[in-house]
Amino acid sequence: MEKVLSFFDQGGGLLWAILVVSVLMWTLILERYWFFYFQLPRLQAELLDYWRNRSASRHFCQQRLKEGLASQYFSQVLRGLKTVDILTQILPLLGLLGTVSGMIKVFEVINAFGAGNARGMAAGISEALITTMAGLITALSGLFFAANLESRARRAREKFTSQLTE
């Protein structure tokens, strides 16, 4: 635990912000996987059962019902995916902000003590590199899973639409 706190001290305050955004992103990603594996099949079965047990009415009413069911289904499937995308875009920017913050500290040390204070400059460089690394790694991992979830959503949408038209 001491090493983790030391790592966060070296990374500066923005590393904590990266941690918070990463935890939020991973919470949403895990919730979406939970939804796709456990809740989506039940939702799909309920909506298809409702569709198949509808009363035979005019074509116009059937089309509106189909559109309403598809809309309800799609809104559940796509819920939270845009937020995951936004968070994966914010993370590298937080890393870049940490880079700038660390380099400002390096320049402050150079301004105050000259280029001879290697220890002071190393702290700023360390902060810059750690926050950059943390922002990029978390964004890349989130980007992979966000793309996977969007692919699953697209396939689920196509499958549901084809089942409605059967």
TrEMBL record:
This is MotA/TolQ/ExbB proton channel family protein. Keywords: Cell membrane, Membrane, Protein transport, Transmembrane, Transmembrane helix, Transport. It is a multi-pass membrane protein. It is found in: Cell membrane; Membrane. PANTHER family: MOTA_TOLQ_EXBB PROTON CHANNEL DOMAIN-CONTAINING PROTEIN (PTHR30625:SF11), PROTEIN TOLQ (PTHR30625). GO terms for cellular component: plasma membrane. It holds the Pfam family MotA_ExbB. Residues 61-160 form the MotA/TolQ/ExbB proton channel domain. The chain crosses the membrane at residues 14-35, 86-108, 128-149. Belongs to the exbB/tolQ family. It comes from Methylotuvimicrobium buryatense (Methylomicrobium buryatense). GO terms for biological process: protein import. InterPro entries: ExbB/TolQ_transport, MotA_ExbB_proton_chnl.
